[in-house]
Amino acid sequence: MEYIKLGDVATYVNGYAFKPKDRGNKGLPIIRIQDLTGNSYDLGFYNGIYPQKVEINNGDILISWSASLGVYIWNRGKALLNQHIFKVVFNKVDIDKNYFVYAVKHKLNEMIAKTHGATMKHIIKSDFDETEIPYPNINEQKRISKVLNKVEKIIALRNAELKTLDSLIKARFVEFFGMPITNAKGWKTEPMDKVAPAVNYSGNFGEDVWLLNLDMIESQTGKIIDYLYVTKDEVGNSTCTFDTSNVLYSKLRPYLNKVVIPDRCGYATSELVPLQPVPSKLNREYLAYMLRSDEFVNIINEKVAGAKMPRVSMGDFRKFNVPIPPIELQNQFATFVKQVDKSKVAIQKSLAETQLLFDKLMQDYFG
């Protein structure tokens, strides 16, 4: 297999270090690293004086080389490029753009190992230019990129299906119960600490225990990303205990909306509160989705203390008046959630298998 250096494939033009005076409320948007993965833009510019080389258009390939490394195909219209992002200008080399993107993605871990800087990790351009990628003929490049693109589309479809099911549950919650702050259905209410007090699990554990930290919980969904098992001696002191009667609520950075319905007992960071709904008044599914609702997240996000590490004021949290619909209606909702969760499990299995296929193909094609 023939290889080629990235420095021989293209010229990499860095964005412009725009000054505060360049920015305003009109003109072309100025793209920063954080704008590449989302839909937000920086402010535009006033005077229009900038190097022409930092203009980008749909189809341009961008590489963030500082802080968060990544490669992207731009598709959101004409814009200007801030510093710390390369615009790729291809040389007269027979290279398929999509193949190039996949090859650079595969090399990112290798590049991360070569990053420099303490507070702002970045790639040195000479290291970037010397990085080699496989260089088959153009027809083979197109074949490879076509295969990978098909698999990525399946992954995107599976993720979209999961989001649709999550939205379906949220919609059914509103249909059944309305919004918890507005309480337009007029359900009776009781304070949180009366209907779902914080109660630690006091039963027995095995030799190895599940230890749950916040970084193992997906925002908005409460999905467990990773399971960590340790010995009891490795647990530490700043923890709580829980079992399958609890709902775990994260009091740190409530806007991240991390609420878990655990399927087994374990230990958790003390940032998670082990709420235990009173069975005659609340079930876990209703409580969890009430806590995840946009209305609740918005109101509780205003009741925090601490600038760098904002935490929910537990006094306000415990006093929150929880709407209490009839338990029969809550149980209907719980049954619906469990049915949807079965569908999600099947989709997640397919997603995991497809992701494994994609990773294998990337390894086979790019080494």
Keywords:
367 residues; single chain; 4-stranded antiparallel sheet; Adenine-n6-DNA-methyltransferase TaqI, Chain A, domain 2; Helix Hairpins; 22 strands; globular; 20% strand; 3 domains; alpha+beta; 4-stranded mixed sheet
Short description:
The chain has three domains: 3-135, Alpha-Beta Complex (Adenine-n6-DNA-methyltransferase TaqI, Chain A, domain 2), CATH 3.90.220.20; 137-178 and 325-367, Helix Hairpins (Orthogonal Bundle); 188-323, Adenine-n6-DNA-methyltransferase TaqI, Chain A, domain 2 (Alpha-Beta Complex).
Structure description:
The longest helix has 40 residues, at 138-177. The protein is α+β, with helices and mostly antiparallel strands and 367 residues long. The chain folds into 3 domains: 3-135, Adenine-n6-DNA-methyltransferase TaqI, Chain A, domain 2, CATH 3.90.220; 137-178 and 325-367, Helix Hairpins (Orthogonal Bundle), CATH 1.10.287; 188-323, DNA methylase specificity domains (Adenine-n6-DNA-methyltransferase TaqI, Chain A, domain 2, Alpha-Beta Complex). The chain has helices spanning 6-9, 97-112, 125-130, 138-177, 192-195, 284-292, 294-300, 314-319, 327-366, and strands at 3-5, 10-14, 23-24, 30-31, 44-45, 55-56, 61-64, 70-73, 79-81, 85-90, 132-134, 189-191, 208-212, 229-231, 239-242, 247-250, 259-260, 266-269, 272-275, 304-305, 311-312, 321-323. The strands form 8 sheets. The chain has a 4-stranded antiparallel β-sheet with strand order 2-10-7-8. Helix content is 36%, strand content 20%. The mean pLDDT is 91. A hairpin with an 8-residue loop joins strand 16 and strand 17 (259-260).
